[in-house]
Specification:
globular; mainly alpha; about 140 residues
Length: about 140
């Protein structure tokens, strides 16, 4: 039955099931894993420079599963935390970690205080770029 289901299922469906199963099984198997503890610390730290320091420790663990776990962070609303995750992912050689900083720089959406500003005082704009939109 499982074999026939897998043959009919799309690759995306199978990947979703594998991801769901790993979310249930992996924590139970590695609750005391040092990389899992650091990963949880990374996810709960919201001060970007502290999170960056944890990211450095995650890279030093040489556990490629860490990069996979951080992929959802590439869409985090806080650009600083998104950049920290991108840094860790890029250090593991995943191209998506290199693409994220470029996307952050192109992002012209409203930014909460502390996330940089778009306008004459921004280091991201020169005032001479015809593609920049004025408010």
């Amino acid at each position: 039955m499982v074999k026939s289901w897998i043959q009919r299922a799309t690759a995306a469906t199978v990947a979703q099931w594998i991801a769901a199963i790993s979310l249930v099984v992996a924590p139970a198997l590695g609750q005391n894993s040092p990389s899992l503890k650091l990963l949880r610390e990374f996810e709960t730290t919201t001060v970007f420079f502290e999170q960056f320091e944890i990211g450095e420790k995650l890279v030093a663990m040489h556990d490629p599963a860490i990069a996979t776990e951080l992929l959802p962070w590439l869409s985090h609303q806080d650009r600083h935390l998104r950049a920290n995750a991108a840094y860790v992912i890029a250090r593991y050689g995943d191209k998506r970690g290199f693409d994220a900083p470029c996307e952050i720089l192109r992002d012209r959406s409203d930014r909460p205080e502390g996330q940089g500003s778009i306008g004459p005082i921004s280091v991201l704009t020169s005032g001479n770029d015809p593609d920049e939109t004025s408010n």
